[in-house]
Design brief:
Blueprint lengths: L12 H13 L4 E2 L5 H8 L2 H4 L11 H16 L3 E7 L5 E10 L4 E8 L8 H16 L4 E7 L3 H9 L3 E9 L5 E10 H8 L2
Parallel strand pairs: 4-5
Antiparallel strand pairs: 1-2, 2-3, 3-4, 5-7, 6-7
Helix pairs in contact: 2-4
């Protein structure tokens, strides 16, 4: 799991319990399971999809992706993660979203990608907006932090279009322990509500 946002919030016990319950329920999402492993492997094996994302289970093998799906599900049961997939009209995996959650801090992070043939169509911005709304409205978070590679212009545009505040750079740690400088943004629920009038 990646690092929590720079800004530190403290959730009340009731707030923390509500977040954990919402993460376990994952209302409205298709939670990744064993049936999605092959589709995720195909998606992530395309460098146009996976190259900019630092926290994926490299190298991409059926075993590494299956382990990632299983580990994400175990974290979901703890109220700390949701790995969701989006399916195309044929029922094939067309993208994924991974929500990392810190219930005790009412905070989260989002990572994800779409299949290469679906990129640069404007759908990414819509997807980011839906995911952010889900995190604030359904998971009851109060803060979201996001990162992107320094050269990931497409993600940066989507993040800024959603109203996130740039907060400089952070050192992101990959699963293998190596690091990557990343651009970093934050958005609070109050800021989102002002922008989107929930």
């Amino acid at each position: 799991m990646s690092a929590p946002p720079k800004t530190v919030l403290t959730a009340t016990p009731e707030e923390e319990a509500a977040i954990i319950a919402a993460v376990r329920e994952a209302e409205g999402l298709v939670v990744a399971g064993p049936a999605h492993v092959d589709g995720l492997l195909e998606l992530l094996s395309d460098p146009r999809v996976s190259d900019p994302i630092y926290d994926l289970p490299r190298p991409f093998t059926r075993d590494s992706v299956a382990r990632w799906v299983a580990d994400s599900e175990a974290l979901r049961q703890d109220g700390r993660c949701i790995l969701a997939v989006t399916l195309d009209e044929a029922g094939e995996v067309a993208g994924y979203s991974r929500y990392s959650i810190w219930p005790e801090r009412a905070s989260g992070e989002l990572a994800g990608a779409r299949r290469a043939d679906m990129q640069n169509t404007g759908g990414g911005r819509v997807g980011v907006a839906r995911s952010i709304a889900f995190m604030f409205e359904t998971l009851h978070l109060r803060l979201i932090g996001l990162t992107a590679a320094l050269d990931n212009v497409r993600s940066a545009r989507s993040i800024e279009a959603a109203g996130f505040r740039s907060m400089g750079e952070v050192e992101s740690v990959r699963p293998d322990g190596t690091t990557r400088r990343s651009l970093y943004w934050e958005l609070t629920r109050q800021e989102w509500e002002r922008l989107h009038r929930l």
